[in-house]
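Please complete every field before forwarding. Incomplete forms are returned to the sender.

SECTION A: IDENTIFIERS
Entry label: holo-351
Bound molecule: zinc ion
Molecule representation: SMILES string

SECTION B: INPUTS
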Amino acid sequence: MTEAHPNPRYARQRRLTFWDDTAQSKLGSAHALIVGVGALGCPCADLLARAGVGRITLIDRDLVDITNLHRQTLFCDQDAKQQRPKALAAGDRLRAVNPEIEINPIVADFNAFDAEHFMLRERFGKPDILIDGTDNFETRYILNDLSVKHAIPYVYAGAVATKGMATVFLPPESPCLRCIFPAPPPVGSQPTCESVGVFSPVSSIIASYQASEALKILMGHADHAMRSLLEFDLWEGHRRRIDLSDAKDPDCPCCGQHHFEFLDRDDEDTVSICGKDAIQVNPHRRERVDLDQMQRHLSEHGHFEHTGVLVKGVLRDEPYTVSVFHDGRAIIEGISDPALARAIYARYIGS
Ligand SMILES: [Zn+2]
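SECTION C: PREDICTED COMPLEX
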C-alpha cells in the first residue's frame, strides 16, 4: 500500500499486487540503456520514465524530422522545425515527465567501436537492461553480442508496415538472437519504414511489450518474462506466439562459442539513414571535433551554423545539406550513393 512507499507519483502502479516496496525501489536503482529513440524507443522510454526507472540512457545519432512525428511520441512540431537531435529532444521531454529520475541523452552512433565504451564508461555505468529501439540489423547484432558477453538482458523488437515482433533474451540461460536468426539479412533485402511505411499503432504496441518485459526484469520478476517470440499484424488482426524454450543452439557462434563477431568488427564507412534520403559517413579517426573550428571551415563552402551540438548547413556548390557532430560523424542529406557521400565528406570535412 502507499503508506509504505508514500510517493504519490507511483500510487496507482503500487496498487498492483506484485508491485511492492522492493519492486519500486529496485526500479528506482535500475539503469536502462535504450539504443535508438524512434518509433520504439520513444513510447518505451516514456513508460519506463513514468514507472520510475531511476536511470535511463538514450543513444541516438539522428535528428528529428517532420516525417517522424506520426509515430515518435516524444517529439513535437518544434523539435522537427529545429531539427533537434532526437536524444536531446527526448531527454528534455522525459525530464519534464519525471524530474525525479536521471536521464542521460547521448547524441552518437551506437557502433561496434563505441558500444562497450558507452556501456561501461564510468559516468553511465553498466546497464541492467538493453532495449532495442534501432532500425537496423547491424546494431541489433552488436546489442546481442553485448548482451551475451556481459550477461545483460536484451529486449529485441522490430516494427515495419503493419507488422511487428518482439522477444526478450536472458543470457546465459535463454537462447540469443543468433540462435534464432543466425545472421543479419542481406543489406537491402528487408522492407524499411521508408519503402513500405509504418502503421503507428504497431510500433506503440511493440514498444509497450518491450516496456512490460523490461519492467518485469528490472523489478526482480524475470521469472514472469515471456519465453516466446511475439508477432503481430495489426491490420490483419493476426497474432502469433513462437515458443523459444527449446531454441538455444549449443553451436551458436555467440552464446555457444562466445565469438562476438559483431562487437569485434570494424565499423562500416557509411550507413543509410532509415526514412530519409540521407547517408551517415563515419570518420576514419576517432577523435573529438572542435565544432567552432568546423563551422569556420565549412563557412567557406556555404552557410553553416553551430547549434551547440552540431554544425549544419547547405553547401554552396553541391545540392546537399551537411550536419557534422562532435564525434566526427556527418549526415549528408539529399544523397543515396554511399561512395558519393564518402567523397563529399573527404572533400569538405576531411578524410
Ligand atoms: Zn545464441
